[in-house]
Specification:
Elements lengths: L1 E2 L6 E2 L11 H5 L3 H14 L1 H7 L4 H11 L9 E7 L2 E7 L2 H8 L8 E7 L2 H10 L4 E3 L2 E3 L2 H14 L1
Helix pairs in contact: 2-3
Length: about 160
C-alpha cells in the first residue's frame, strides 16, 4: 500500500512510477493542472503566491507533492537559524549540515538560536503560527514573539 502524494489516501500500487491515487490527483500534475495553477498564482492571487513564497509553478508542484506526505523520518528537529534581524524556521535531520548548506547564501553568519524535536508538520504549524512575521519563504522577522516562543520551549524541555 502507498499513500497518494496529493490527498494522502492509501491506495494499491501496481506500477513503480505511480505516486497518486486517482486521475483527479494525477490531473494536478498534467499540463491543464499546471496551467490552472499558473493562472491562479499569476492572475487571480499573485500577492498570495508571493506571501507563500512561491516563485514558479514548479515551487507550487513541490509544495502540493509535500502537502499531505507524512513525515516518517526519525530524529528530525525543527530549527531556528538567526541571520541579523531574521530567522529561518526549518526542519532537518542534520541541522549542522543544513546550516553549512545555507551559510554561503546568507549575508551574515548564521546562528542556531533554537531547536526542538519535530517533523515537517511541526515546521508547517510554526510557519502558520508566525505567518504575520513572514518576510520570504521560511524567513521571518526575529521579534519578541519568536524569542518568547523559544524561551517557552527551552523552559518546557528543562
Amino acid at each position: 500500500m502507498r499513500h497518494c502524494t496529493i490527498c494522502g489516501k492509501q491506495f494499491e500500487n501496481n506500477t513503480a512510477y505511480r505516486a497518486t491515487c486517482s486521475d483527479t490527483c494525477d490531473g494536478i500534475f498534467d499540463q491543464e493542472g499546471k496551467a490552472a495553477i499558473r493562472r491562479m498564482f499569476s492572475e487571480v492571487a499573485p500577492e498570495a503566491a508571493r506571501v507563500l513564497g512561491f516563485q514558479t509553478v514548479e515551487d507550487v508542484m513541490l509544495w502540493l507533492t509535500d502537502l499531505r506526505r507524512e513525515d516518517t523520518t526519525p530524529g528530525g528537529e525543527v530549527y531556528f537559524l538567526a541571520c541579523g534581524d531574521f530567522v529561518k524556521i526549518g526542519y532537518s535531520t542534520d541541522i549542522a549540515g543544513r546550516t553549512e548548506a545555507l551559510q554561503p547564501g546568507a549575508p551574515q553568519k548564521l546562528e542556531l538560536i533554537g531547536r526542538m524535536p519535530g517533523s515537517i508538520q511541526t515546521e508547517r504549524a510554526l510557519h502558520k503560527k508566525f505567518k504575520h512575521l513572514r518576510e520570504h519563504g521560511e524567513w521571518f522577522s526575529l521579534t519578541d514573539d519568536i524569542w518568547k516562543f523559544l524561551k517557552a520551549v527551552r523552559n518546557k524541555r528543562q
